[in-house]
Amino acid sequence: VHPNVSQGCQGGCATCSDYNGCLSCKPRLFFVLERIGMKQIGVCLSSCPSGYYGTRYPDINKCAKCKADCDTCFTRNFCTKCKSGFYLYSGKCLEKCPDGLEANNHTMECTSIVHCETSEWSPWSPCMKKGKTCGFKRGNEVRVREIVQHPSTRGNPCPATSESRKCIVQRKRCQKEGKGKKNREEKRKKSNKDESKETRQESKGRAARRQNREQRENNNKTQPKKRKAPNKEQDLAPVDTAH
């Protein structure tokens, strides 16, 4: 250590020298040696740089180097990120993953092998041929299933997600395009026409009955009242002459 030690340092240093930089740090800061050419300079940082891990002691907090294959680490023996070409597994950096695991080139970690998983088969579709369900006797029906878990690099690949088989149906003729719709439209028009006809007939019937009733009332008003016929039995009754 250079004998020229100063107390009025900058950059978080508690003590420093012109030759060696920081000699000690202020509380909670980490002391680390940085190499500049052939020379090492002490600096004080709030956290350790990449490739270093921090340790706290009663008198000083220090940054120590990780292992050569480790980019960042928690302690010297526990790496959290590996350098290029290595895969992280349980805090260690490995060139090759253990048996039962595979290398993930995206995260640069050794991960478990994932196999493909599919859903259950759907019910068989209606028997069809060239997109139609009529006009044929022999056709095909299909069923499908979905992939619910895609496999990893070394996992078992996914099986087929659709199946087809032959089918036989009772042959029936196809309706001409638009014929079914036309028939329905004609039935609807006929129904409306019948309803309108019934409505007109009912209206005519009510009008005729009303006209007859009015005619009878008018006839009753214009005809003279008939005189009551005499009682013939009373006229022929014997006259009592006994006195």
Automatic annotation (TrEMBL):
Keywords: Disulfide bond, Glycoprotein, Heparin-binding, Repeat, Secreted, Sensory transduction, Signal, Wnt signaling pathway. Residues 169-243 are annotated as: Disordered. The keyword Transmembrane helix does not apply. Residues 175-219 have a biased composition (Basic and acidic residues). GO terms for molecular function: heparin binding; signaling receptor binding. Pfam families: Furin-like_2, TSP1_spondin. It comes from the Eukaryota. Residues 116-170 form the Spondin-like TSP1 domain. Gene3D superfamilies: Hormone Receptor, Insulin-like Growth Factor Receptor 1, Chain A, domain 2 (2.10.220.10), Thrombospondin type-1 (TSP1) repeat (2.20.100.10). It is found in: Secreted. Residues 11-110 form the R-spondin Fu-CRD domain. One of its GO terms (biological process) is Wnt signaling pathway. Its main location: secreted. One of its GO terms (cellular component) is extracellular region. Interacts with the extracellular domain of FZD8 and LRP6. It however does not form a ternary complex with FZD8 and LRP6. Interacts with WNT1. Binds heparin. Interacts with LGR4, LGR5 and LGR6. Belongs to the R-spondin family. Activator of the canonical Wnt signaling pathway by acting as a ligand for LGR4-6 receptors, which acts as a key regulator of angiogenesis. Upon binding to LGR4-6 (LGR4, LGR5 or LGR6), LGR4-6 associate with phosphorylated LRP6 and frizzled receptors that are activated by extracellular Wnt receptors, triggering the canonical Wnt signaling pathway to increase expression of target genes. Also regulates the canonical Wnt/beta-catenin-dependent pathway and non-canonical Wnt signaling by acting as an inhibitor of ZNRF3, an important regulator of the Wnt signaling pathway. This is R-spondin-3. It comes from Dicrurus megarhynchus.
